[in-house]
Design brief:
Order of helices and strands: HHHHH
Largest sheet: none
Oligomer: single chain
Strand content: under 5%
CATH superfamily: Cytochrome c-like domain
Radius of gyration: 21 Å
Number of domains: 1
Shape: globular
CATH topology: Cytochrome Bc1 Complex, Chain D, domain 2
CATH architecture: Orthogonal Bundle
Number of helices: 5
């Protein structure tokens, strides 16, 4: 009987700890701009128009968000694939940030 209580208590404690674990927040726009500055600005420029090494003009790009995420994740041409360098959340945040460059 005592072992059943111990198992039940262990299960309850595990679920409670899992539920209380902090989940990482999605990067903010400010964080996305910092990641963009660190990894993308060399070829794309601060305004997205630089075009070094064949980098596309991000202000003129019509790629939807999902394709931007894929391109950042897997790279294209000379572009570095950022899977394994950036988290999926950072990649999505940078992709969303690039969408704002056309409106600047």
């Amino acid at each position: 009987m005592i072992w059943k209580l111990l198992v039940l208590f262990a299960l309850f404690a595990s679920v409670t700890l899992w539920a209380c674990t902090d989940k990482p927040a999605a990067p903010s726009v400010r964080d996305a701009a910092a990641v963009y500055t660190q990894y993308c600005v060399l070829c794309h420029g601060a305004d997205g128009r630089r075009g070094l090494n064949g980098a596309g003009d991000l202000t003129a790009s019509t790629l939807p968000l999902e394709q931007r995420i894929q391109q950042i994740t897997h790279g294209k041409g000379l572009m570095t694939p950022y899977a394994g360098i950036l988290t999926p959340e950072e990649i999505e945040a940078v992709a969303r940030y690039t969408l704002t460059l056309a409106s600047q």
